[in-house]
Queue: 3 jobs
Job 1
Amino acid sequence: MILHGPILYGANFLKRETHSPLQLPSSAFSNIAISELFSAIRKKKKKCSLLSLSMEFVLDKDQHIHDECSTLILPALSIGNVGQLAIDLLVSSSRAERIGYLDDSSVLPCVGNDAYAPVPQGVLALPLEAYESLSNALTLVQQRSPIVKGMMIEFAKNLADFAATNGKKHVVVLSSLDSGRRQKIDMSSGTQIYYLSSTSPDGTDDHCEKLGWKVLQEYNIDQRRWKLLSSLAEGNSSEDASLFEDELLDEDYYPSLPFAAFFSCCKAKGLKVTCVLSYCSEGDNIADSLQMADAVCKLLGLNPKKLSGNEGSGWLIPPSWKTVYGPPSDMSLY
């Protein structure tokens, strides 16, 4: 994920405790050693109740969860980071406010500068952050680092627990798919949006069909890997979740992706879940993320031009995207 300044890693990052937002000078990442930075974080932390055996939800100071924000939108890491970029757009354009962060032992630790502030103020950006847009009744989770190998199922279960515990009625999962895996290409229009819904056993949804989207044909609950995933999500399988790390057959590609784990675990919790999917290739995926963010608005009946409450403003590009191609070239070289 794109952050202002370098991302710093630590083995014991924010484990089982909480802190209020830590303010650092804008130059902090250049003049504070990593060990000193994490020492500063630990001094700011306070005790917090445990959400589950391996995940905590930590509210920022003076923040709380609003019941009316009952739709949860989150990315599933995949090729091109399209889901994460779309979340960036939704958070920035809706002017959503950070309410806290999720700390899970399955997520690799990282830290960076605030991704949404026009001018970096030294507020830490963390691996899993929760935002709310009251005016749009949305809760958004941004994920900035990958999952530890072999822990995807456990992580998906924890996120499903978080959604159920906090009264979310609809979970929307955003994910890209490798265009090299696509069997059929529809050249009659632009990017085709695909979907997968929990509203029916075969994954179809009338509302999504009316939007012109196509159900993911590769979803087959009787296929061995989809079946294993569903069984693991329901806690009925004695098989090891690490089997998902074995060598994949072509038919195993889709159920091996993070979105499939989120879908199965949220469905097992009785939550309504819709996966919004699009094919892409690795590269400049900004256009893909704009189309996915548009698709989310169509799904939820929102107007992108009114997300921030100011009609006509359209999508607000996050300041962190200025660094997407790295620093400019040194003109003295030319």
Job 2
Amino acid sequence: MPPLKKKKAATDKAVPIPDFYRATRSGRVRQEPARSTESVSGGSRRRAGASVNEDTQRTDTVNPDEPNGNDDSEAEASNHETGEGSNPTGLEAPAAKKRGLSKGYEIMKRTGTGGKIDGIYVMENGQSFVGPNESLLKTELGVVTRLMAPIQKYYWSKLTEADKHPLFKKLEDEFDIDTAGADARKIMEKRMKKRFINYKYAMHAHYLKDPQTARTDPPVDMNIEDWHMLCDHFESENFIKRSQINKANKSKQVYAHTSGAKSLDQRIYELEKKKKQKQQEQQPTQEERETDMEDADSVEEEPIDLLLYAKRYQRADGSWVSEEPQKNYLEMQSMWIEAKAEGKPISGRDIFEKVLKKKVKYGPKENPRSAKELQLQEELEATRAEAERKSKEFAEKIQSQEEQLKSQAEKIQLQEDKLKSQEERFDTQAEAMNQMKDAHDKLQRQVLVIARQLPHK
């Protein structure tokens, strides 16, 4: 990884919002009236051309870019209605403040003076980003994907390299990271694909609020033409069928985790960082070092993978989300203790693979297959089976024809042998007749000779 560049200090000076953040997907600047003090469902509507300071001074606006580790995609789809029984007094409660769509203002403030944001690294396994500014990159990936990826393509797989190039260029201008690197680009594209899917899901949720009037109420940052195209897509038979399949797959999820939107690799990075800081802060004395060396074989911290698993499926009070993850953790802990007692070192990853049957949710792994991929796999298997069946039938047919040809060839050979035998017999008879003729001719000549020798009367 190239040496990190020194990050320039953020300035408090108001930074004008670039046209990029005020433009709709079609490139036209959105014209909206001044924002009222009431909360707007689906995200904060900002005036075109408003400055960062002007927006952040409003008391009714929640800063969407405050680094809190939340996933931008989850924030976009977080407009849930208040549940039944949430207002037991029966009094009318004030409208709840809702986190709106992230606009990337924190990124603009950090890069407004021309610098790039550093502190982002690629995990050794090449599967994700980690670092102190990982959450900023994750949020900006969602913003850039939402505002620049052509939603008219409907599916990320249909985007061409020309469609994706502006997105990578934008991120390369903002972050000190090489988007041309194989690992970095693969991670970014994977994240963008997920954000694209989540944004489309949020648009579908907006559509489902009232399908009858949805066409007249486009979401924030989307022009009416694109929205009508999306509505047509949501009403198509293919989309409805896919939605039902995905819904059925989602219902099969055994249990959910409690670790929020932060990636597991990022949590590993933070746990290891805290562990190193703790070790540096607690400098042991010579006597403590000797004691630690004596107890090194008996006292050893369990693998960070196991600690992370426990954090992921435990609530704040220490209780487990369900019995299954607790059972898995106890089994993994028992396996680790047993291996340590036998003097056979084993990694947390190996324990995961043995206990969870390779259902590890981070690090190098096979990518989980979507409903479409599963359907394509089933179709491929069916096609392969049909091809094998036809190939087998064709081979059997060819073999049958070969046997028939062989039988016919044998019959022809028999007939040829019979004809040859008859020809030989005919030749023998002809030769015998020729011999008889020769004998007859010879006898006639002898008779003539004898007749000439007899006296004439």
Job 3
Amino acid sequence: MSVAAVVPVPELESDPKAAVRENEKKWGKPLMDAGWTCIPSTIILRQQALGLDPVDMNIVLVIAAHWWKANQLAFPSKKLIADTIGKDPTTVRRRLAKLEKDGMIERILRPQPGGRHNSNEYRLTGLIAGAVPLAKEEIAKRAEGKTYRKARAVKKGRGLVPVVKP
């Protein structure tokens, strides 16, 4: 089973508990202890550019909340997704089919003996691939803004280091 490549984040690998502690300060320990989900800001803030409406986004959030390890795909049932977001299972089925048709998700059947199936696994590689260019745009905008602010500071004399004469 192939899964999207996971890029390690060195600053978090040195102290993985630091991010959790920072989130505990924001959300409180009970909420963090009950479980949390990492969603890139680009996916949240650019959901419209990705073609996701609020129902689609909620489905993605439920799938992401059940995707705990990079090499183990999430497999929440359609009923669980429907109950979680307050929609009919038929709506969820249609939306999952649309997300798959749009290339945002991939549904993987999990057959059982006797012709039955367990709940599908879901791969978000299409969504991730679609979000990467938007993330790169954001990174470029930030770098451009940082360069602009630095140039303005130098122009106003704030970015210069004073020379101390002996």
